[in-house]
Structures are given as structure tokens and as C-alpha cells.
Design a protein that fits this description.
Elements lengths: L1 E5 L6 H12 L3 E5 L4 E4 L6 E4 L2 E2 L5 E4 L6 H13 L3 E2 L3 H8 L1 H10 L7 E3 L6 H7 L5 E5 L8 E4 L2 H13 L4 E5 L7 E8 L2 E9 L14 E4 L4 H14 L3 E9 L2 E8 L5 H7 L3 H12 L12
Parallel strand pairs: 1-2, 1-6, 6-7
Antiparallel strand pairs: 3-4, 4-5, 8-11, 9-10, 9-11, 12-13, 12-15, 13-14, 15-16
């Protein structure tokens, strides 16, 4: 098959692995810098052009869309959908997952376990907003934050009020969430491909750090999931409409709660922690499912 990987950096571990594994499996694989794509939207035949040339027809597209280019990146994915290429993750699903508020609302509607979460534009009573998620300590998140950036743990109600007021003074959109103390600064990354969890790791925050992101010095080890955790991860991926994603869970006393669904999860941490060929499993999914126009929206959404 002819496969395109949308990625800004060909040297990233995930991008390199996807290309190497694709070639090893006999595919013709191109790495396409998303921001260098431009679209012919007016013609009756949708096209994607790249550095002055028309791109060929791809059997499948693997989007590796960074959070900083979500708007343009999803537009490019949508254009490939319109050309009939099978997109591993569709534009609408990527957009859903990138909007933290929208994703939490969708997961809540389907009964997925979540931490108590509050959102307000200009609350008349910040104290009540904090109280509604269980009071301090609580977690305050920027809607647009990634890799743990813009995530703050407020130990006291006074601190929480000051942080909320500061963010609102900057006109930033924020979520306030219940702090799951029993998680002990650890979360579980479930890597979902298709309708199953193919790999899982426990990420533990560095000493004195409640955020478990590997980019922030956290460590990762192989973990065995419970049946409920597997079911929760797969259900969360299905609600988002994502075929390949990372679902981040916390182990709460009441059961697993979903913190985030990542539409462009990195491969390095999960492959090293689990010693699994996750890239190969992604290609197995593509080889089984890639057919022309085999997407839910076909660029219409």
C-alpha cells in the first residue's frame, strides 16, 4: 500500500518507527510535513498539494497532528478524507479529543468514569466552583495545555481561588478537576488500536511531582490492566471515534477514571516500557481496514 505519515518532524521516534516498520512490511511510505500541505478546495476533484506538486493518491494516512497545529492539521486530514484516503484517525475525532471540554462532555454523556470537573467562563462564585469538585486540593488545567504544561495542583482553597483568578485575568479557558489522591501521582496510559488495548504502562511522576508525564521526568513500567480498565479505555476511544489513541486513566477508589484521550500518542515510552511492537500493530490495523472512502465522515464533518 501507499501510505502517508503526516508529521512535522521526520526525526521523531514515533515518525521514524512508523516509516521503518511500514517499509519492512512492504509498504511505500512517505513522510509529509503537515504545514507544507495546501489544498485545492474549489475543484470538483479534491486535491492536496505539497511543495509545488500534487500529492499522489494514498491508500492510508497516519495523522501525527501536534496540539499546536490542530486547526490546520485537521483541515489537511479532512482534505485527504475527501480524496478517498483511509485516515487512521479522522479529522472530526481528532478535533473532539483536542477540545478537553468537549471530550469530557462526550465521555460524561456515555457514562465513562471521570473525575468531577467544573468549567465556567466568568463564575460569580469561584469558591462554589471549587467546592463543586470536592474542594482543595484540586487540579486546575488550561484547556489548551499539553504534556503537563498548564496543569496546576492547588493545595488549598485560597491557592485555588488565586490561580483561577489569575488564569481568568489572562482570559484563559480552564477546567477545575477533583484531585484523585489515591492515584499517588501515577496514571495508566492505555494504547488502543481498533477495538482493543494493545499495550499499557504505568507512568509515575518524579519525586515531588503530581504530573506523571514522561516529558516531565516521570518513569514508565509495564502494568497489567483489570477487565474494567480495559473496557473503560476501549469505550473512551469509541466515544471519541478514534481508531488509534492513548487513553490516560487514574485508579480511583470508585474505579478507573479517564483523564484524557490523546489522538496522537507517542510510541517511544510505550514500546520501551512494554517491549511491544506497537507500530507493527498499527500497521496490522491499517492492512485490515484500509479501503477507499472507508471513513465515517469522508470529509463531510
Amino acid at each position: 500500500m501507499k501510505i502517508g505519515i503526516l508529521s512535522r518532524n521526520k526525526n521523531l521516534y514515533s515518525t521514524r518507527r512508523l516509516k521503518e516498520v511500514g517499509i519492512a512490511r512492504g509498504h511505500d511510505v512517505d513522510i509529509i510535513d503537515t504545514l507544507h500541505c495546501y489544498m485545492d478546495i474549489t475543484s470538483s476533484k479534491p486535491l492536496v498539494r505539497y511543495k509545488g506538486n500534487e500529492l499522489p493518491q494514498y491508500d492510508a494516512i497516519i495523522p501525527r497532528i501536534g496540539a499546536s497545529i490542530s486547526f490546520y492539521g485537521t483541515a489537511v486530514v479532512r482534505q485527504f478524507e475527501m480524496t478517498g484516503s483511509f485516515c487512521v484517525n479522522e479529522s472530526v475525532a481528532i478535533s473532539r479529543s483536542r477540545d478537553k471540554l468537549r471530550s469530557m462532555q462526550l465521555l460524561s454523556r456515555k457514562g465513562i468514569g471521570l473525575p468531577r470537573t467544573g468549567f465556567a467562563n466568568r463564575p460569580d462564585n469561584i469558591k462554589d466552583l471549587i467546592k463543586n469538585v470536592g474542594g482543595a486540593p484540586c487540579v486546575i488545567k488550561l484547556l489548551e495545555g499539553t504534556q503537563g504544561i498548564g496543569v496546576v495542583l492547588a493545595e488549598t482553597s485560597k491557592t485555588a481561588e488565586a490561580i483561577v483568578e489569575a488564569f481568568m485575568g489572562l482570559e484563559a479557558n480552564i477546567l477545575i478537576q477533583e484531585f484523585i489522591k489515591e492515584a499517588g501521582g501515577a496514571d495508566i496510559r492505555c494504547f488502543v488500536v481498533g477495538d482493543r488495548v494493545v499495550a499499557a504502562m504505568k507512568r509515575q511522576g518524579a519525586e515531588g511531582e503530581f504530573r506523571s508525564n514522561l516529558h516531565r521526568g516521570g518513569s514508565a513500567v509495564l502494568i497489567k490492566l483489570t477487565k474494567e480498565e480495559r473496557a473503560t479505555a476501549v469505550a473512551a476511544a469509541n466515544v471519541m471515534g478514534l481508531n488509534v489513541c492513548g487513553v490516560d486513566l487514574l485508579r480511583a477508589e470508585r474505579g478507573p477514571v479517564v483523564m484524557e484521550v490523546n489522538s496522537s500518542p507517542g510510541l517511544e515510552g510505550i514500546e520501551r516500557a512494554t517491549e511491544k511492537d506497537v507500530a507493527g500493530l498499527i500497521y496490522q490495523f491499517i492492512e485490515k481496514n484500509a479501503k477507499p472512502n472507508h471513513t465515517r465522515t469522508q470529509g463531510k464533518g
